[in-house]
Write a structure and sequence with these properties.
alpha+beta, 4 strands, 3 helices
Length: 84
């Protein structure tokens, strides 16, 4: 199964770049019909993960994917599932 992976560790303190990377990976998943995107905001204080979740809950973004799964074993990782 093909999946895309986005690690946000390198851009955690650059707001506009975080949004741009999230937009890019979501668009790429839709264009290439990839069923799963793994987003790694990291463990930290949880603020970056909250920001990612808020991004994913925007109406225009929410329309692109099927569901979001929080990794039960690693709270610093999210899975976005697509139904193409």
């Amino acid at each position: 199964m093909a999946k895309l992976k986005l690690d946000l560790h390198d851009v955690y303190n650059r707001g506009a770049q975080i949004e741009a990377e999230l937009e890019r990976v979501m668009r790429e998943a839709v264009e290439r019909r990839i069923p799963l995107v793994e987003i790694i905001p990291g463990k930290g204080s949880g603020q970056l993960k909250k920001r990612v979740i808020r991004f994913l809950q925007q109406g225009r973004i929410r329309a692109l994917y099927h569901r979001v799964e929080k990794d039960a074993k690693n709270h610093g990782r999210l899975f976005v599932h697509f139904r193409h």
